[in-house]
Design brief:
single chain, 179 residues, alpha+beta, 7-stranded antiparallel sheet, 7 strands, globular
Length: 179
């Protein structure tokens, strides 16, 4: 048993199966983590819910950013998120400085894995993975999306909401109006 715990600790897998925390409570904590980082980002990003997935003892919650984030603004976004997560006491675990598809990964003090990664067309994806918890039903998130939900569609589309700041092609265009 001690060897198993050491192995779990070595790979960073926390377990709360016996603590009374269930999948629903962990999913709600994930929503709090996602909502807090998205509130921190100004100007506001518009986002929709990505799929919630449930494993044998864990839950993943996702937010898909629908605001167009230009290549010139990706560093701004990653910097804001990195500073907020560090200020919140999260431990940074991986920083991928790829020019096209950068990402940052961190872990909260209570064992939740968080990440922001930039995908195709500059679309940002936030995800929180819970530690292993007691099995339970998991309800949909009650957080109110700030972009359409795309219900009934097979896939969430690429980012399609313009922002004078986040979509600007050059840093000097922050206050430029859309022509």
């Amino acid at each position: 048993m001690v060897v198993g715990c050491i192995v779990l600790a070595a790979v960073g897998c926390a377990t709360d199966r016996d603590s009374g925390v269930d999948m629903q409570a962990a999913a709600e904590r994930s929503d709090e983590i996602l909502d807090s980082v998205l509130r921190e980002i100004q100007p506001e990003l518009r986002w929709t819910h990505g799929p919630t997935t449930v494993g044998s003892c864990d839950v993943s919650r996702r937010r898909v950013v629908m605001t167009q984030i230009s290549a010139a603004r990706r560093g701004n976004l990653l910097g804001v998120v990195d500073r907020f997560w560090r200020k919140s006491g999260y431990r940074m675990t991986v920083i991928n400085n790829d020019a096209e598809f950068p990402a940052i990964y961190a872990r909260t003090g209570d064992g939740f894995g968080v990440r922001l990664r930039i995908g195709g067309k500059g679309q940002a994806f936030f995800q929180v993975d819970t530690p292993c918890v007691r099995e339970s039903e998991v309800a949909d998130s009650t957080s109110k999306a700030t972009a359409p939900l795309y219900e009934g569609m097979e896939f969430i589309p690429r980012p399609n909401i313009h922002s004078d700041f986040w979509s600007a092609e050059s840093p000097g265009a922050a206050g430029a109006s859309r022509s």
